[in-house]
Every structure is written in C-alpha cells, then in structure tokens.
Amino acid sequence: DRRYVLAVAQMGPIARSDSRAAVVARQIELLREAHARGAAFVVFPELALTTFFPRWILGEDERQSFYETEMPNADTAPLFAEAARLGVGFYLGYAEIEAGHFFNTAIVVDRAGKIILKYRKVHLPGTAEPIPGRTLHHLEKRYFEPGNLGFPVARTDYGIAGALICNDRRWPEAYRMLSLQGAEVGFIGYNTPDDHTGDFDFDNLTSFHNQLSLQAGAYQNSMWLGAAAKCGNEEGSRMIGDSMIVAPSGQIAAQALTTGDEVITARIDLDMASLYRRTIFDFARHREPEQYHLITTR
Ligand code: ING
C-alpha cells in the first residue's frame, strides 16, 4: 500500500541552556502523539537538539558543546528506542562533528531504529564573519562546512525518500537532485528567523517565501514534502512556524497553527506523485538536459 500517515513534529524554542535530555523528552512526547494519530514517520526540525547557536559569536568551548560526535548517543538513544518500540521512522536534524569537520546534518531512521540515510546541508545561508551592527547573527558559514555527501536518496518503507535542510528548500537544484533520482517524498527541517536581512520589506515576506519555496519545490518535482520548523521566540530571535505537508500537486495537506511544539499529520498517497510524473513532469519525455549545461557549469 502506497499510503501512510506522515507526521511533522514542529518544535518551539530551545534555550541556550537546555539539556539534550530535556529536548529529547519533548521529542518523545511529540513522537508518541504522532504515533497515537497513526503516523508511520515523523519529521523533526533542523538542529533539533540545541538552540539555533549560529545566531551568536561563540567561544570555541561553547561552540563545540552544540555538536554531536556520534549518532545515536547517550542523549538520543531514548528517542531511537521509543521510535523503534512504536515502530515509527523519523528525520532528525543536528550539528555534527566528524574527524574535525563540522556539518549541519540530518538523518532518516527506519522503524527499527536504524539510520538509513544521512545528509549534510549543502546551502549555508548568511556569512562567516559577523555583520557589524547586528545583535543576532546568521553565522552558519562560520560554524559549518558545505555538505560532502551529495543529495542521497533511499528506497524506504516511506517511499523513495530524500532529505534537505532549511536553506536548501529555496534552491530548485536541491529538489531536482532528489527527483532526478526518483524521490517521491522529501523531509526538511528548518530554523527560519524573521530578521534575516534587516530589510523590512524582505523580512515581512519570510513566511510567504517559506510557503512559496515548499509548494514550488513539491509541484515542480512531483514530490510530497514534510517540512518541520523549530520556531517561536528562541533567545530573542523570532523564528517562523508554518510547518507543513505539501502534496505533489503543490496543495498544502496540513499546516501548523502555532509557533510551539505541535504535531501535524496527513494521510499521504505516494501514487499521487506518479500521476504528475506520468504527465506534466514526465522527465524522460519533456526535459532537455543538453540545453541546461549552464546550471552545472556556472
Ligand atoms: N535559515 C534560513 C532559511 O533559509 C533565511 C535563512 C531566513 C533565509 C529568512 C531567508 C529568509 O530558511 C536557515 N537555517 O537556513
């Protein structure tokens, strides 16, 4: 059966001082609610184990405290165990150190608690150096390297699936790398402050641009998308919610109403994607790759 209930577990603020244990306890509650509502898979946000620390200029010790050196680990084991006990798969975003390299990472875990896909964020927004005059920064280029795992896609119990992270969702190439590999569902976590540029006309459209990016990405690639926000007023930074599940038609199947911990669900039918792939977005019949060389060479 190609239908199942997909859940998105939106999370409200995580404080700078929150322990991993306190955060994982919230995630287990969200997982249980999703399961109670029939969910087979749950999408958690980007950097879901800590506050969005790239908003600050950090000393090296505190900076290092925000990364995971292994996954699962003592803090996240209870989440993996509960998910396996309930038979629910999940996507989880976190900051990763591997051999001295720092990544903004997300994993897809199957219903047995096994990591079946790992993705490292390719599109890092903001700057490496602080912008003078700002109190809240966006320093992902300071704290992470661009992902080095490409855009992996896996055949899973939840469909042919891929993972993206936050800013990736604004770049058509990111979705296309997944759909060219046959992906029919994409999982995305995000942390999106509403003051990215300081230009009010731009920042005023932050919620609109989130929805526009997700609806366009889903429709133009005939994919289901489950997108989970970490949101609310987190250490003085207001981050948008608007978590949503978007159908291959571009229609919004479910949307969060709050800016706190909130589960949304939709019963998705993967075969809806194939209708679009057989007609308007039949890549084999309609795409002309030899005409697109600028996209990969520029
Ligand atoms: N955050 C934001 C995102 O791409 C941003 C950066 C905020 C861009 C607001 C544009 C507008 O959603 C992350 N973490 O990528």
Automatic annotation (TrEMBL):
The family database entries (CDD domains) matched by this protein are listed as: DCase
CN hydrolase domain: from which residue to which, for each copy?
A: 4-270
Q: Does the keyword Hydrolase apply?
A: yes
Q: Answer whether the UniProt record assigns the keyword Hydrolase to this protein.
A: yes
The record's annotation in PROSITE patterns points to:
CN_HYDROLASE (PS50263)
Question: Which keywords, in A-to-Z order, does the entry hold?
Answer: Hydrolase
List all membrane-crossing ranges.
Answer: none
Gene Ontology MF terms = hydrolase activity, acting on carbon-nitrogen (but not peptide) bonds, in linear amides
Quote any Pfam family the record assigns.
CN_hydrolase
Q: What PANTHER family has UniProt attached to this entry? A: NITRILASE C965.09-RELATED (PTHR43674)
- Name this protein carries in UniProt: Putative amidohydrolase
**Organism encoding this protein:** Kaistia hirudinis
